[in-house]
Amino acid sequence: MNNPKTHKTALYEKEGINQPDSISKASIENITQLRRKQPTATELIEGILKGDKTALSRAITLIESTNPSHLEKANEVIAGCLPHANKSVRIGITGVPGVGKSTFIEAFGKHLTTAARKVAVLAVDPSSSLSHGSILGDKTRMEELVKDENAYIRPSASGDTLGGVARKTREAIILCEACGFDTIIIETVGVGQSETAVHSMVDFFLLLKIAGAGDELQGIKRGIMEMADLIVINKADGDNIKKARLAKTEFNRALHLFPAKTSGWQPKVTTCSAVTKDGIDDVWNVMNDYFTLTKENHYFDSRRSEQNSHWLTETINEQLKNRFYNRPDIAQLLTENKKAVQNNEISPFAAAHILLEKYFNK
């Protein structure tokens, strides 16, 4: 013990042992160096083709970037992966908030991985129109599926994309297919117009419903019901089983009122419980019947071709929009014209004409 006589006061502490750092400085340096080093397009492509999920995630982040300097590299990655894509089935799943989409996808995904399939889930999370933020909580909801080696979950923010579909979902599908995933599931935010966008990029469209959410008139509404290849009444468990069966009967009646699909497929209605897993295998059986039919009558391939043409025009529209707003002279002129429009000095139509003339005549 220290000698008290050497201290000026009676209050003193014995010098203790310094605790070692809880984190290795060498590890911190290694992680920092890895983050600084950006992989090349070739390295990303090689990683994706080897089934590396980290490379896949980094590539999707790259293609989602709005930085114009990343565009060339992103296009190089997509071009390198494209020859290895188109070897999967693409399934769109939608439904109103609260219908149990995440719970259903986890149960359905686990059923598929048990059957030796590789599943990629591209979940689109709604972005706030005020803060522009997004929770991206799908991995938290699907806590069992996220730990599965044969599954990959990628939540993306919808951003300012109309309808709640991520801006680069189509490209992300190509990368996931090149990474070896043979079943791609796209979950929409269920806000209305997202269904139209998702329908234009998937092979099979599934609509989740719950019993008691509307009468038979709800079932014959145009739009979303016409796009559905299968309607699944979820939460058919406990006291809700009887209601689910009744809803199934009502939707079956409603579906027969719609004109026949060009695919030759008659949409089905089934019930399931994502909690008890009852009926999940029936959903996959229906999908297999659909894929068998549409591949035999060549609708499957012709639809893929139509979708490629559709996404050509969508990409052109997107690139024109991005280049327009990212040009500095246009941004300055846009600010000036906005003030003039707000002060009623010029009409919105005349201001738009001035901006477009400036853009195309430079």
How confident overall, as mean pLDDT?
A: 82
Q: How many angstroms separate the termini?
A: 84 Å
C-alpha-based Rg, rounded? 27 Å
Q: What proportion of the residues is helical, as a percent range?
A: 40-55%
- Global structural class: alpha/beta
Strand content: 5-15%
Q: What does this 3D model show about the protein?
A:
This protein is of the alpha/beta class and 362 residues long. Helix content is 48%, strand content 11%. It contains 15 helices and 7 strands. It has helices spanning 25-36, 41-49, 53-64, 71-81, 101-114, 138-141, 169-178, 194-199, 216-219, 224-227, 241-255, 280-296, 299-326, 328-342, 348-361; strands at residues 89-94, 119-125, 151-157, 183-187, 204-210, 230-234, 268-271. It has a 7-stranded parallel β-sheet, sandwiched between helices. Helix 2 packs across helix 3, helix 5 crosses helix 12 and helix 14 (328-342) runs antiparallel to helix 15 (348-361). The longest helix is centred in the C-terminal third of the chain and has 28 residues, at 299-326. It is globular, with a radius of gyration of 27 Å. The N and C termini lie far apart (84 Å). Residues 127-136, 161-165 and 215-221 have low confidence and may be disordered.
